Amino acid sequence: MPYEVSTPxxxxxxxxxxHLITRQQVDLYEVSLSAIVDAYLAHVGAMExxxxxxxxxxxxxxxxLIELKTSRLLPxxxxxxxDEELARWEERDLLLARLVECKTFKxxxxxxxxxxxxxxxxxPRVAGMEERFLSLVPDVLAGVSPDDLRSALxxxxxxxxxxxxxxxxxxxxxxxxxxDSVEELSTVLPVTGxxxxxxxxxxxxxxxxxxxxxxxxxxxxKDGLVELDQASNFGxxxxxxxxxxxxxxxxxx
Length: 253
Fold this sequence. Notes:
By secondary structure, this protein is mostly helical. The chain is built from nine helices and five strands. It has a three-stranded antiparallel beta sheet. A two-stranded antiparallel ribbon has the order 1-2. The radius of gyration is 51 Å and the shape is elongated. The C terminus is likely disordered.
């Protein structure tokens, strides 16, 4: 049998009161929970024995009504709960950070203790050489007189001359390199076709750059990428590309 309540705004089963409140058909502010509790206690006192079903139903519905009323009377309770929740998370993070820090120090202490234990097993040699081996040790001071020691000390304390240094200020830096020239020729020769060394060096003023270009041709010839032909001594040097056309030669280290 459901518990019946009687209030100024409602009279009937207790669960029906909750249903009407949730449907906003009864104003929660006009429902006095203290009056309902007093009436329930009087009802329990009048009962011959306690009905657990009625008691459970009353506690459940009363707790629900209290929660609803609290949330409506305190509209900022959600914000407060959020702040409390954030505070709890912050405390949890601080606690975790301290636990991690504590574990780090414990691990470091354990590692140092292991090293100390390993070091305790080592013993330095404090005894001198055995007598049977003393005669085998050469006398490093044999034939050394006090004058020799004085001379050695003077040489050790004498100021040392600065290390020899070669001045390279007059040497011009070589801007061209064989590697760069090989890359350039491996790109140009497959396109230009057969040509001459004179054409490849046309416009080059520095002799060193001409030499570098010639050395690059020798590198390509060594790799079988070009064919060199010279009809006579000091004659025209002809250059023909014989390597792959689509893949130029990679730069050498």
